[in-house]
Amino acid sequence: MFNDNEKDIDIIATYSDASGTIRTSTVKMKDLSASWVLENPTNGDLHKLKGLQVLKLKDSYQTSKISEENVVDDHQLQEGENQNHQRASWSPVKFKRQELRQKRRDLRTAELVRQDKGADKEMQATAAIENLKNMDTVVKGKYSIWRRDFENPNSDSTLKLMRDQIIMAKAYANIAKSKNQIVLYNSLLEHVRENLRAIGEANSDAELHPSSLDHAKAMGHALSMAKDKLYDCHTVARKLRAMLLSTEDNVGSLKKRSAFLIQLAAKTVPKPLHCLPLQLAADYFVYGYQNKKDLNEEKLEDPSLYHYAIFSDNVLATSVVVNSTVLHANEPEKHVFHIVTDKLNFAAMRMWFILNAPEKATVQVENIDDFKWLNSSYCSVLRQLESARIKEYYFKANHPSSLSVGSDHLKYRNPKYLSMLNHLRFYLPEVYPKLNKILFLDDDIVVQKNLTPLWDIDLQGMVNGAVETCKESFHRFDKYLNFTNPKIVENFNPNACGWAFGMNMFDLKEWRKRNITAIYHRWQDMNEDRTLWKLGTLPPGLITFYNLTYPLDRKWHVLGLGYDPALNQTEIENAAVIHYNGNYKPWLDLAVSKYKSYWSKYVKFDNYYLQLCNISE
């Protein structure tokens, strides 16, 4: 602060007004309020200021900052001098109030602008509605229901439009007939026929006839006329609902028929595959191969070697399993394949592997009928398979038609369930009494990597090593077993994870120790009336090896190539074993084409018998 006797200082103050413009004014040092302070003080010695000096002052109440872009010329300063002189006496508080007023004005202006834009939009919407009310739908030349993609030239909008038009035309035709408007009824039916002919077998716009768009326009005109004459919301809705119910019934019937035909195609042996075992069996006896003894018999019971079990009646499929396994084996001479087939295919199977023995590996072919211990007095499932009730289930003529039941019931009527070959997997210790470990392989798999590391996996006291198939809620025990039955509820967890047959490492020593076959027999006896599970081998397998299955890494066994066309390609190529479980086997025309090459590359299509039976890629 300064004393009255001290000489005052004239100060030219530069500041920014409420509008942001820089102003200047002359004030006395003593007139400044206490809120103004020196930004670069001179230790309070004002006498040291000589001549014209620049002091930077800072207002602690002022919130706006001076910007170089707001500097104005001398002419502008002179014009605002009177106003500035008036404002020079304002206190900083008054400047603050002025600034707040300006902010309120700005907010109010912005609000008015928003309201104005909202009013404009409302007016535009009202105008659009009025235009729609006045639009003549008859002359528009098209009738698009629900779909805006009609205008997109890159979509299949024309085809979709024509199909929608057909649906609406049928609905209006029924209404026209009920109201005795025969001319309109006949006109709509004629347009329906023309559109159906134009569509034909097309699945996209590119496949449509060039005149299809003209048909769509003509149908649109006819529908517009029908709408003007017949449209009643309640009537149209009722008619469409009736059409929907009728279509749903037709779809259900077609699904059942499709399921039956797929099952029939999957289980019917193609002529070339039927020819192959016949030709092999004929030559087997003609050339006296029935007297030929197996080679390397000493290896068949050597527990130090790698043993595989394959139970199949399909010669070609079994050859692919053996060929693909040997090709990827590091030491083929240590691999022994135990193949068991039925009496009908024994000669053909043995003939094939006599003529096409894999390099260095050992192959043994046996006939299941030679296992005299496997009889109905010992084997409960064999006794059941021979029962009249099971045969009636499969073959009774007046049994509910396959076309009248769903696909879930159809699959249980698969003839393979009548084959003891399918159940022989539960008797591995009896079939191979001197072996300690054996790898079980289905005939619809392909081996892509060396499998010998499987013998080094510690199963930790478990009997079965398998890849689990459960994902979230899928393929758990409640999918395979009847949990309404108290026997199932008391013994098993419905959320227990399922696993797959197809590639299983069995510890036969542990199997014998735990008497697993007896467990299997006990549950099979309890399921004679099929109330615990339907026919098949996986449900009794899940029960028999419950809490006795060691989960293998999923890379060992990838499933689904026989039914799922959307599998991950990388997973397939990285898998040690790929499994064509399902109806679309790789040797059938039903096979998923992109998966077929994984199997066919192990088939020797230049083989004499394959060429004789016209088996080609």
Pick out the low-confidence regions: 1-6, 42-77, 137-154, 400-408
First-last Cα distance: 107 Å
- What multimeric state do the chains show? single chain
Strand fraction band?
Answer: 5-15%
Give the biggest beta sheet: 7 strands, mixed
Q: What's the helix count?
A: 22
Query: Whole-number radius of gyration?
Result: 44 Å
Q: What would you call the structural class? A: alpha/beta
Mean pLDDT across the residues is 81
Report the principal-axis shape: extended
In the sheet with the most strands, the strands line up as 7-6-5-8-11-10-12
Helical percentage: 40-55%
Number of strands: 14
Describe it.
The protein is of the alpha/beta class. Helices cover 44% and strands 11% of the residues. The N and C termini lie far apart (107 Å).
Short summary:
The protein is an alpha/beta fold. 44% of the residues lie in helices and 11% in strands. The strands form four sheets. The chain has a seven-stranded mixed beta sheet with strand order 7-6-5-8-11-10-12. It has a three-stranded mixed beta sheet with strand order 9-14-13. The protein has a two-stranded antiparallel ribbon with strand order 1-2.
Give the secondary structure arrangement, pairings included:
Blueprint: E1 10-16, E2 22-28, E3 36-38, E4 57-59, H1 74-79, H2 81-87, H3 92-134, H4 157-178, H5 182-199, H6 212-230, H7 233-267, H8 271-286, E5 306-311, H9 315-328, E6 335-341, H10 343-355, E7 362-367, H11 380-385, H12 388-395, H13 407-410, H14 428-431, E8 437-441, E9 445-447, E10 464-467, H15 477-480, H16 486-491, E11 503-507, H17 508-514, H18 516-526, H19 538-544, E12 549-552, E13 557-558, H20 569-574, E14 577-579, H21 593-600, H22 608-612
Parallel strand pairs: 5-6, 5-8, 6-7, 10-12, 13-14
Antiparallel strand pairs: 1-2, 3-4, 8-11, 9-14, 10-11
Helix pairs in contact: 4-5, 4-6, 4-7, 5-6, 8-10, 18-19
